[in-house]
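Need tRNA modification GTPase MnmE's 3D structure for a figure. Predict it.
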Amino acid sequence: MVTMNETIYALSSGGLPAGVAVIRISGNLAFPIAGSLAGALPAPRQAGLKTIRTRNGLVIDRGLVLIFPGPASFTGEDCVEIHVHGGKAVVNALLQELSAFEHCRLAEHGEFSRRALENGKMDLVEVEGLADLISAETEMQRRLALEHAAGGLSGLYNAWADRLTRARALIEAELDFADEDDVPGSVSDMVWADMKRLRLEISDHLAGADLGEIIRDGLKVVIAGAPNAGKSSLMNALAKREVAIVTDIAGTTRDVLHIDLNIEGYAVKLYDTAGLRETDEIVEREGIRRALRTVADADLVLSLAEIGSEAQRNFPGFVGKVLTIGTKADIHPGETNQYDLLISSATGSGLAELHELLRQDLQARSGMLSLALPSRLRHRTLLGESLRAVEAALASEDRGLDIRAEYLRQAATSLGRITGRVDVEDLLDVIFSEFCIGK
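Structure prediction for tRNA modification GTPase MnmE:
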């Protein structure tokens, strides 16, 4: 059974072999264990070059040792970092030696961060931001994750929760001390004016959820159209490698393929789908069904048609933006401009313009400077609950202050669940399972 009383250790740096490997130790026994391995420990937060030995005196390696006394450490506990050469044999020998100490065990996924949460060093949004920062692949993902990990989003939610708490306190004062001269009757007017402002703030904030999820998970762009419209050729041209099979045979693409692109720091997930047409062939019909399902979930659809054919503009279940693209411009020169863009995957004509259209679309979606945006479905759901509770309080003028105060309590509880200020135990195992062992 996992307990907070045990001292934990893990490799916290990257995969082996490497130039340097960092082994992290956290818990009440961290300093005595490190002393057994390295002798006299250096001063806090100062690196000391030490010979790392087994308890039998055999040398494992020479490396740097740093100690971080709690609570001023990442986990809030006593922590040690041992920096050694990043060879597999060196690291395995050190980890094997650590496993021999009583009440010391290998950390589980995300356990260092979980201890930081439980010791008040981070809140839940900051933990999620840290996980996103570790996995960030684009500049915008890094910036969004850093905003969350640094507490920008938490500060906003905590300020809203504090306003709700103050509003409830003023309502309680008016209910309990209505006959006292020092509690003016205009308190309610002040409270509800602020709650109207808060409703607008939460609503505006929720409007950025789509962008937050796009930055974190990537803009989902789907290439759709009739068979032989050039979908797979465009996919390969944008990927700059052979991702999809290209032939003159209609219906070659049967399943959904996807690649990840980086456009101006944004992650873009590009999907190639089966050609859309009526068919009795059972495998192709399944590919078309999957294609339509992928289109319905898209953020943007590139509807391709060979120049001279009509591009599809409406797709079942999709209500977003559709860009119509005429393909094979190299063999259809001077054709009609009934499309948003003309391209040739064979010559590269129009591909730079398509890249620019995607960049403009991303910029239009991100028409804001702040990246204090909700980026997970969990955030969106709880913010929606909080907003509905505030709206219910504002709409319940005829139901009494006690009922309206209860709605505000519900709103504050939903905000608290985002940051972990109220009980969210059921979420923790799921969230920390996303982390690597050493974090």
